[in-house]
Specification:
globular; single chain; Rossmann fold; alpha/beta
């Protein structure tokens, strides 16, 4: 069985390790513990592939920028012949407190341009997403600046533990399925 695991973010040093790039950072951590390396010269993004108990995980960090993420997702789903039921998108979420993690099997884009692009390109809202809470500690009109800023020093100290949990969610999604993974992790 093959899965496409997508971490959303923006390419470029100015976006590295910002709140909006939590998907990229999660996959970088996953690659680090899995001893795999991204090939950055692939179409529409950086790709890494690893095995997990007989399953193949294709890891994707789109190079299309957040607002065009759907192009990369659609391309790699088709190229690897992966059904949308085996797609997991890791995304930042301002509606969740910092560090909270929620796994969902479907839903609206909630105003997130990366999710909006994916839904338009694959023509469904029915795909799994791992929402990584980044909080909403900003004043009206400052959302863009907030999501494109880096985490506080205190939050950065807590990120490794949250990445470990996110990696366990990814593994559970692939090995146990969406429903079991949701039951296992959404109440923590």
């Amino acid at each position: 069985m093959k899965f496409l695991i997508v971490g959303l973010g923006n390419i470029g040093d100015e976006y590295a390790h910002t709140r909006h790039n939590i998907g990229f950072d999660t996959l970088d951590t996953f690659c680090g513990v899995s001893n795999v390396v991204f090939d950055v010269n692939k179409r529409y993004g950086a790709i890494a592939e690893c095995r997990l108990k007989g399953h193949t995980l294709v890891l994707l960090k789109p190079s299309t920028y957040m607002n065009e993420s759907g192009k990369a997702v659609r391309y790699w789903l088709q190229k690897e012949n992966i059904p949308v039921e085996q797609l997991l998108v890791i995304v930042d979420d301002i509606a969740l407190p910092f560090g909270s993690i929620r796994l969902r099997g479907k839903g609206s884009d909630a105003g997130h341009n990366g999710l909006k692009s994916i839904q338009q390109m694959i023509e469904t809202q029915n795909y799994a997403r791992l929402k990584f809470g980044i909080g909403n500690d900003f004043f009206a009109g400052q959302q863009v600046d907030y999501v494109l800023s880096r985490f506080s020093d205190e939050q950065q100290k807590l990120l490794p533990e949250r990445f470990e949990t996110a990696i366990e969610v990814i593994k559970s999604f692939c090995l146990e399925g969406l429903e079991r993974a949701m039951n296992k992790f959404n109440n923590k």
